[in-house]
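debug: dumping io for the single-chain case to check the tokenizer round-trip. Nothing else runs in this session.
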Amino acid sequence: MICTDLQKAHLEEACELFAASYRCQREGVPVLDEDNGSTERILPMLQWCLENHSGVAVFEKNKMMAYMTGFYIDGLLGVHKGVLSPEWAHASSNEKAFEVYRLMYQAIGQKWVDDGCLTHAIVFMSYAAEAQEAFCWNGFGGVCIDAIREVKPIEVKSPKEVRVTLMEDKDIEELLPLVDGHSRHLAKSPAFKPYIEPESTVGLGDMLREPGNLVWMAWDSNEAVGYMKVAPIEDGAAWIVNGKGKFAVNGAYVKPEYRGKGIGKLLLSAIMEWATKEGFMRCSVDFEATNIEACRFWLRHFRPVCRSMVRRLDESILSTIR
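debug: decoded output
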């Protein structure tokens, strides 16, 4: 096997590798949009990526076995410059995947560090177990899960005295503490997602006025006890979850004392009822792998399709290599 720089002349072959990998993913999750594996969708993104960033490819007997590239982001998951390699920015033929991915990271990881990137983030399609294992051995840990489901009704028995409504402008003051509660929950162990500042009614109102952003709220009498929010597309979510007739759940929270009563399922059922009437085909969600409560809930109702993994390097490595 030979690991070499990824060139523009290699990109058609890279697209074929991705298409084969995507077919493997769709075998287990057919609700994914078939067209996302097409060269027409993948090639422009790879061309854009390779214009300003490096890439590597592995060949054996003049046949491409794998490729990997990525793009730089200032302040990725913190204060340091980082690199993101989305699920479309790498693929392998599945032959010797563990060895191939280890080899690619050895080559491209050095390029990333030479360019000052201390946070390395890779998104894997969930079927690619060997590739994920290779990056565990390379010091990476899981941070986020992307999942998807077909839009169809969810049978649920309404918890006693709890009702669900589509949020109106007058409800923003009631929604605000729930959004804040969600942020504070993620700041605690084991997620430890930084709590920067509380959301404001103005900021929340501006967000909810954007087309396609809607919120369903759960009420116990006049007390708001939970919410679930949707958007047309969720920024930062895996690319492969997108497609025709798709929307995203991009926020949810139930007060601790009301958990275990079926309120989350009731909110999701209301959203599925709305989505069915609106003609949507698929719904995505992404959540922190370290959020235990979220994992328990979402994995009951959605199929995981991508896993994001991250490695953060000691900043002193920059002075070591200069």
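debug: round-trip ok. The chain has nine helices and 14 strands.
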